Amino acid sequence: MSGKNVTAVVAAGPEGIAQAARCLETGGLVAVPTETVYGLAARADRPEAVAKIYAAKGRPDFNPLIVHVAGLEQAARYAEFSDAARALAEAHWPGPLTLVLPRRADAALAAAVTAGLPTVALRAPAHPAMRALLAAVEFPLAAPSANRSGFISPTCAAHVLASLDGRIDMVLDGGPTTAGVESTIVAVRADGSVEELRPGPLAVGVQAIGGSIEAPGQLASHYAPGKPLRLNARAAEADEFLIGFGSVRGDCTLSARGDVNEAAARLYAALHEAARAPQPRIAVAPVPDHGVGRAINDRLRRAAA
Ligand code: AMP
Ligand code: MG
Questions:
Q1: Could you tell me if 193 and 254 lie in one domain?
Q2: Ligand 1 mean position to 100 CA, how many Å?
Q3: What does the DSSP assignment read for the chain?
Q4: Residue 156 within a domain
Q5: Looking at the structure, do residues 245 and 165 belong to the same domain, yes or no?
Q6: Which atom of ligand 1 sits closest to the CA of residue 214?
C-alpha cells in the first residue's frame, strides 16, 4: 500500500504529468499509459518506493522489474551496452522493446528492481505521456504492468482501477493503449548473442530458445482471467463466453476483419469483458501465429494454463 486509500485519476495532460512527477519524487505509485499496457511506476532509485510496487501488486520478490528511461544515454548509466545492444536500442527506441543487459556495478538502482540478478531490463517507451513524465523527473522509473500479480494486464484506466483502486496514489489517464500486449523482451549476452525472452509487438528476428524461466512473466500461468479458458474454439459451448476472431463470431471479437494488430490492441479488454461476463467459462477463437499473433498466442496459452 502506498499510504493512501484514494486513487486519483488525472488526465495525462501537462498538469497531470506535473502532479505525477511530484508524486513519484516523494516515493509514490503512479499508473502510467505506455504504448503496450499501463505500467505501475515508482522511482527505481529508492528501495522504499520500489517495495511499494511489489506490495501493491502482490508480486513475488523474485520477479524483477523493467526500468523505463528516456533513451540510450540514460540507459547507459545502468547497463553495459555492447555494440549489438546499442544497435538494437538505436533501431527500436523509443518503442516496445525491452533489453536485458549486464547491470553496471555502479548502477544507482534499488536492489529489488533486479531481484538479485546480474542483469537489468531497460526500455525507452514511445507513449507521449510516459515520455513527458520521464523528461519531467530526474530518475528512471521501475514499472511492471499495473495489475495485481498474475491477473489480466490493463489497457485503459478502468482496468487499472479494477485491480488497484485504493492501493496506488494515482492513475494518469491517457485513454486506451495501442499495441495492447507487453513489450518484446530480448537478452543481449556478453558474447553478443541475442535471445528473445518474451514475444511482443516488435519482431526482432530472434526466437526463444525456451527451457529456463529467466523472465518470470514467462511462468506458465499468468494473465489469468479467473475462469477456465479454452483455446482454438470455433463455436461456444452453452456455458462459454466466446471471444471471436475473423470469421469466428463471438460475444465480442478481437478483430472481425482478422487483423492481428487490432487483435493485440483489444486482447486484454476482451479478457476483462469475458472475466466480468455471467458465463463461467471462456473460449477463444484461433488467432494466426504470425507477427504480433505470436505474442497474442503466448499470452492466451498462459491465461489458459
Ligand atoms: P511485467 O512488467 O509485469 O510485464 O514484467 C516484466 C518482465 O520483465 C518480467 O517477465 C520480468 O521477469 C522480466 N525481466 C525484468 N528484468 C529482467 C532481467 N534482469 N532478466 C530477465 N527478465 C527480466
Ligand atoms: Mg505483468
A1: no
A2: 8
A3: --S-S--EEEESSHHHHHHHHHHHHTT--EEEE-SSSEEEEEETT-HHHHHHHHHHHT--TTS--EEE-SSHHHHTTTB---HHHHHHHHHH-SSSEEEEEEBPTT----GGGGTT-SEEEEE----HHHHHHHHHSSS-EE--BSSSTTBPPPSSHHHHHHHHTTTSSEEEE--S-SS-SPPEEEEE-TTS-EEEEE--SS--S-----SS--SGGGSSS-SB-SS-EESS-SS--TTEEEEEBTTB--SEES-TT--HHHHHHHHHHHHHHHHHSSSSEEEE----SSTTHHHHHHHHHHHH-
A4: yes
A5: no
A6: 21
Question: What is the pTM (predicted TM-score) of this model?
Answer: 0.92
Q: Are 17 and 50 contained in the same domain?
A: yes
Tell me the pLDDT tens digit for each residue of 65-74: 999 999 999 9
Q: Which atom of ligand 1 is nearest to the CA of 66?
A: 15
pLDDT tens track for 209-256: 444 445 555 555 677 889 999 999 999 999 999 999 999 999 999 999
Same domain, 246 and 168: no
Q: Are 117 and 175 within one domain?
A: yes
67 and 178 inside one domain = yes
Question: Does 40 share its domain with 166?
Answer: yes
Ligand showing the shortest atom-to-Cα distance for residue 144: 1
